[in-house]
Amino acid sequence: MVAVNTATTRRVVTDELALSEIGLSGPQAVYDWRRRRVTTTDSIAVELGPRDWALWVCGPPGERADAGDVTKYVTVTSDLM
Question: How far apart are CA 61 and CA 76, in angstroms?
Answer without folding.
Answer: 13
